Amino acid sequence: MSVEAALKKCFVSASDNAFLYRIAPDFPAFNGHFPGNPLLPAVCQMGLCADALSRRTGRPLEIKAVGRSKFMRPILPGADVRVTLSPRPDGQFLAELADPADGRKFSQIIFSARVREEETL
What we know:
Layout lengths: L2 H7 L1 E5 L2 E5 L19 H16 L3 E11 L8 E8 L5 E6 L6 E11 L6
Antiparallel strand pairs: 1-2, 2-4, 3-6, 4-5, 5-6
Helix pairs in contact: 1-2
């Protein structure tokens, strides 16, 4: 299973511009990041942003560019993550990833997205 497919399976629910994900302890990216001290890689956090925006728009999107990212604390196996999206005047989006229980932020990512082109083999 691809990491993208694994991220989609983590989706729990949506409300307005907030999307809840539960990162399973056996999430495949934990295998390599890092043995004995697993954490969700930044690329997977960006994948959550793309998945949330895709769900919001109803179109398959991918990250086009990251304007800025700030990682405040690690996302550990079994964590619940709320992704809140806010459009910005410059056409980008601000995604705040936080613990839904206490509101503490895991990361903030400013990004732009584009419609994903169909892959051909």
